[in-house]
């Protein structure tokens, strides 16, 4: 083999090696580009998923805030309604309290009422000796019915007439503009056992409170169409 043949073979070998190198390089380049595209797609999908999750999380937060805000507004509205109902009921009681003042203005009927209140209190206490407290303005009316009240009680209870001691300490006076915030009493009496352990509060104000508590469900039903819990 002469030099020309050797040179030719070498050139062929060089071309073959170069071709293989180029093909290998192309394969590597294509493979790298495919891997890059796959990784890029995965990164994009991962980022999209992250964005979707973040959006869903924020959307849930907004929904929760809306529900909380709606619940708070609903509760506030309910409280306002209940407050308005209470204000109306209280205004009715205040009006009834003012009407009580008229009871003691009719001395004839009020005198009869005082006697009945004393007899009722004696029947509840069933004590041989009691203390009686009334308003200073009612003292003369109370003293005028004491004997008849004791006799009626004795007849009903089948006992001896009790001893009734009128207390020197009086119940507060009727409500007035001069004493708007102080203690007051619209009338009636308070009786107690001599040791003070048993007390029967039979004032007009106390009776109004009892009746009002008993009738409150009915009052609410008539006013608002439902019985308050």
TrEMBL record:
Superkingdom of the source species: Eukaryota
GO cellular component: proton-transporting two-sector ATPase complex, catalytic domain
UniProt keyword list: Ion transport, Transport
GO molecular function, one term: proton-transporting ATPase activity, rotational mechanism
Keyword Transport appears in the UniProt entry: yes
Family the UniProt entry places it in: Belongs to the V-ATPase E subunit family.
Name the UniProt record assigns to this protein: V-type proton ATPase subunit E
